[in-house]
User: Fold these one by one.
Assistant:
Number 1:
Amino acid sequence: MTSYPVQMINDLLEGTLPLDEVARLQRDKDLDRVATVLELEQARVAWDDRILVPLQESLYVVERGDGARVVKCRCGQEFGDYRRNWKEEAAVYERHPQDGIVYLKYKGADPAWQMLREFYCPGCGVQLDVEPVPVGYPFVFNFLPDLDE
Amino acid sequence: MSTDIDSPGPAAAAGSAAPLTLREQLARTERAISESGYYEADLSLKESDPITFEVLFTRLLQTLTNAREIALSISASPSTREQGEIIFGLYTREGDAICLSTGLMIHVHTMSRAIKWMIENDYETLVGFDEGDYFFNNDSFIGGGHPSDQMLITPLFIDGRLEGWVGGLTHVTETGAVEPGAMGSSFTSRFAEGLILPCVKIGSGDALRKDLDILVDRGVRSSTSWLADNRAKLTGDMIVREKLKEIVAEVGLGFYRKICREYIEDTMRATREKVRRSLFPGRYREVAWRGVTLPGQESLLHSPCELVITKDGRLELDYDGLPSARRQPFQATLPLFEGMLFNGLIQNVFYDLRYNDGTFLAVRLNVPLGSACNPGNIQLPTTLWGPAYGGMQACAQAVSRAYYAQGYREEVHASGPLTSGNLAGGVDQYGRLFGSQCFEFASSGMYATSFMDGLDTAFSDFNAEGDMGDAEVWEQQMPQIWLAREIRRDGGGFGKFRGGNGIHSLYLIPEGTDMEMGSFGSPPIFSTAGLMGGYPAASLRVWVGRNTKLSEMLSDGLDAPNGEGLHTELPDFVTEVEAEWEYVPGQNYPARVLPPESLFSVVSGDGGGYGDPLERRPEEVLRDVTDGLSSERTALDVYAVVFTRDDADLIDGVDAEATTTLRAQHRRDRLARAIPASEYKARVRERLIAGDIPAPAAALYRDVLQFSAKWAAEFRTFWQLPDDYEVPA
């Protein structure tokens, strides 16, 4: 069975793996990857709750000591039960699509059509998601992992 | 390896004295697959001799790819010859794809659709199938994406019996539509899309009918692309057909039939296994955006994608929530939507499997009838696909999340670009009729991944191996003159890894022409999303300059404009050239007559960004600014990177300490301006109740609340609105 050195997978997660090595990973998959990545992700955070699945950049579904499965930021901020969209517990900002900070007039959307809805972690301020949506569009619930045994 | 095996598949179980018609066999085969879950019950040939199994498939693939390469050399069309907008496929007797060449992967399944349509409509009796016949189709409700997608299909006869089909497909650049270049953004009817031939027998005895050539010659602005591509496809079809006869003579007909079925079955099984191994089980949701900008029906269009991955490797896609089909061109036929999705899935998940209909058969797909991706009503235009392209973008993002959770970060990426460009027609400077679209947008900006920036001017989802084509070759087909073809600075979405920048081109309308020019793309929106904190790619736009003083500028010894420059607001060509400038946000600009010396500026589309921009490595920000790919303003405002400067005030490095301090301040600023989601929802709910919603979104909500019970229920539940809520007028 194909397997790769842990350091190689770590470099992939860090975004520093040379591209010819990335190409190797793309060509030939290692079936033990989930376990390797979970180990590496666990080592990257300062808390002890067990990571069940990395949800996306900065967010994990973890199992707490009391058995609860919650979404947690790498900074330690919790977002509640993983079956509920974590965005419901985020800090939200509606950015004008031509605010001159991110997009200028000639590269941004028309505010009558869309804005940029930004979701931040209330604990550390990391930007977790940007939804280019019109006013009134429900939060997109991007990922509900199937964790049932 | 010759053998007498004769297995016509699961449908053969019920014996019948009389030979089945094609229509009967198709119905029985599809019923048998549906009931059994198998395309072929066993893989005995693969299991008994796996080497031969692989070698023969490679020969089929080589035959198709060889035909494609030869056909490329025959075509005179830049989009086919320069960019490779062509594909060949081999099909079973019932029309299921066994093997395809490289090329336009969208059409893995669309030619299959057309073959089945002929069978279901009893062409066998009413029209007749003979060796050397060629059936042309560009009716997108039958197969293909829009009338530009043109297929030429020939039956494969062995010992006097129809044993399969060979098909070639190209994308041509002129169809005689109301607007030149086939892909106009103003169409309100399918009958504006030009000349449509629904599975018409245009050749027999390996020769094409001259009267139908004349029909095309007089029915479109410039027939070069259409007719030259037909000859290219006929040649490719013949090459494959004759090679197949040799192969069947060598291996035996029974062996050939069974192994073809095993190839499809093997792909079905491999598809499920790849899903099971690679993608984390769960429910994923993404949405992509398009819109209509026609007078009187300005509306956003969304493509809500729900992807379910099960633990046993099933992949289910549900697009319930799509808007309804209307009299506007930003929608797609079901064959095209299927093609787009499988094009995306093959690139993102099944790239190491055999490409054939086994993948299609292994995936469950729901696209509501009457929706913008399955209109049903054939009077509606489907020229520009709209939500189908978005549906593929959304699916690819969902798949990326599934890879991410499974640890395969090397497969994770943001949205690919919404590709866009210009079209033109009229009389060129030599007095010749012309009509075409420019496909340089095949080299748009690529998506950012979880490990690197998107490539600049390198990619399109619809033809991943496409190229932009030489400007000089395009100028022979479209008499616009390129004054600039450059990387669009700051076009790609910002992020920890940025999206690739697309192309900006500036065209001059030359003297001696009578030309109308337009473009197609999107309303003024972000149509290429970022992922996991990355920003979407920049919006598209057009600049049109009429009554320029260009000749006077050149006479005065000034330089011609050569690009957008280092501007932060207006592009250089607008400030440098005196003209009546028109700015068109978005890129939907129905073709209009432009006098000589007019200027026309379009962008090709850029890739979405990945991750929080404040986590981008400062040295990469510096590199982008130094290379002219990003602006100093962006470096400071978006990436919060502070540069050091030398004695001449030129940037010479990164001030690491100041950057760390500024980034911390940016994070604090975010939290200071944001509000809790609960408070945000309460505010927006009040706006919904008051009807304080801009018109393009209100039009979408009104439509989908009526059209999709599922989406309506979720919308009302999310905002805690009453069950009978409608957006107030």
Number 2:
Amino acid sequence: MAAGRRNLFSEPDEATDIDLAPMIDCIFILLIFFIVTTVFVEEPGVDVAKPDASVDQPLERTSIIIAITADNKVVYGGREVGVSGVGARVKQLLNKDDLPVIIQADEKADHGVFSDVWSEVKNAGARKISLSTRVD
Amino acid sequence: MARRVVSDEDATRIDLAPMIDCIFILLIFFIVTTVFVQEQGLQASKPDAAAHVSLEENVSVAFEITPDNKIRYEGDEIPLADVTSRVKAAVTDPEIPVVIRAHEKSDHGTFVAVWNAAKLGGAQALSFNTVD
């Protein structure tokens, strides 16, 4: 009788024991996928209406992105830096790693501002400078 | 005897719950930080000050963008749709440089449109400079 009671108590315990190994396998696969695809790029975080072009090519994911808004504000990493602030920031980032630079200019932005930002980036020592266009 | 075997099995079982907790936290962090953004763009080039003078002399194809976003070629105002055919006619050799001279008050969108049209016309040595 005593043995029978023990069985009664221990059996439900073993029955609720779920094998977690397959779930852990799945989670690991997801985890590795997300680790591999994550790129830590500082997005400008402003709304930019990019111009359209048919001859554009995909750009590198890991880049320094500088945005120029329709009212000619120069933005990097969510902060307005101004044309004069671009050079120092890009130089600082290029010291760590030789990254390409992408200029996201609004189609309503002045060409003069774009050109000034271009010169600043060029003088900071960037080797590859691209201008961003609409993704189609 | 049978109980000893059972308790031995129990002893070798590792509690996976804390590890799963950790993995879930990592997983959520990476899901949240992942951005699937594919940037598209153009590689533009601008002659630097030193090259500027020598380039100016043998430029045969130069487009001008006025402050009010009009496109001028050899002094005449042309529509955007004509840029491609003009470039095609003028660029007999891909080495011939094509320059876009944009006024600093013109729109960036116009500049990109002209750049795109010139590229479609077969201009390989394409560059821009800014006038004020």
